Amino acid sequence: MLETLLTAAVAVGAGGLTYLAAAARVVKQYERGVVFRLGRVVGDVRKPGFTTVIPVVDHMRKVNLQIVTMPVPAQEGITRDNVTVRVDAVVYFRVVEPTAAIVNVEDYRFAVSQMAQTSLRSIIGKSELDDLLSNREKLNEGLELMIDSPAVGWGVQIDRVEIKDVSLPDTMKRSMARQAEADRERRARVINADAELQASRKLAEAAQQMADTPSALQLRLLQTVMAVAAEKNSTLVLPIPVELLRFLERPQQPLHGPESAPQVHSRPEQAPRDGQPLAQPRPLDQMPPQTPSPAQTASQPQPASPAHTPS
After folding, report:
1. If we measure between CA atoms, which residue out of 221, 225, 224 comes closest to residue 241?
2. 214-251 residue pLDDT tens
């Protein structure tokens, strides 16, 4: 009799330990447990610590509440200003409702990944290239809203979305480099022209001041000579008055007077009388021979006479 009681007690203890081992569950601090009894959600979410379920009847699924960092693969698209780019991003999210994350969606991680890719493509098509490069904060906020809207029903909260990199074609990179170089050159020219304008105004004021006080010009000349003489060089400075240069710039007067210039007398043409035709010039063969004047004969050289040799 005693042996039968001891055997029964041992069997009950072993069965109790087996039941306890099958029913015991441990939920970690960053997890929550959702219990399904015969396929239906039963009770509230199990909190961290030790908990039990009915073996065979109950089934508990654990949900991680930690923030998940999910990289979004690079998506290629065309911006609103017709530029082909490749953009990748990263999404930070976490589960806030374990029951909805298990019941409402099959795989919330895959769902968030696909929604992030489609939203990123939509953002690329709605934005311009300058916005992708310089105004990323606004695009991150818009991308976060687009992903978070459907994720609310999945029990998921989007904490942050960041655009990581924007890849441009090589031709676009070269064009942007030329544009930036031209812009810098334009600004340099504007600054140089502004400096020249200010310098010319100051020089005009200085010239007006020196014109009012001529002694200031002499003092300035002496300062220049001292500045040149301070250095060890062989430069010789000779100040020349400006009045002397102006005198040399005057046009020189002609050496001969108007009397020395040759005068050309033109023979006036005789006007035709009334009813008489103009005289026609004769041909050269019909003109009478002209006899040379004594002055012309004297000016012509005489031929030399043959020399006589004495016999």
Report:
1. 221
2. 777 778 777 777 777 776 666 666 667 666 667 777 66
DSSP codes, 156-196: EEEEEEEEEEEE--HHHHHHHHHHHHHHHHHHHHHHHHHHH
Tell me the C-alpha distance between 13 and 206, whole Å: 113
The CA angle 35-41-47, to the nearest 5 degrees, is 40
Of 53, 148, 144, 45, nearest to 97 (Cα)?
A: 45
Q: What is the pLDDT of residues 118-129, one digit of tens each?
A: 999 998 888 888
* DSSP 8-state symbol, 29: T
The rounded distance, in Å, linking the Cα atoms of 83 and 75 is 14
Residue among 167, 162, 152 nearest 95 (CA): 152
Of 157, 163, 165, nearest to 90 by C-alpha is: 163
What CA–CA distance (Å, rounded) separates 224 from 230?
10
Q: How far apart are CA 240 and CA 249, in angstroms?
A: 14
Residues 6+ positions from 50 with CB-CB distance below 8 Å? 24, 25, 26
Number of Cβ within a 10 Å radius of residue 237? 10
Helix/strand/coil for 206: helix
Residue closest to 79 by CA, chosen among 114, 131, 31:
131
What is the C-alpha R_g of the chain?
57
Helix spans in the chain (H)? 2-23, 98-103, 108-126, 129-134, 136-151, 170-212, 214-230, 242-248, 294-299
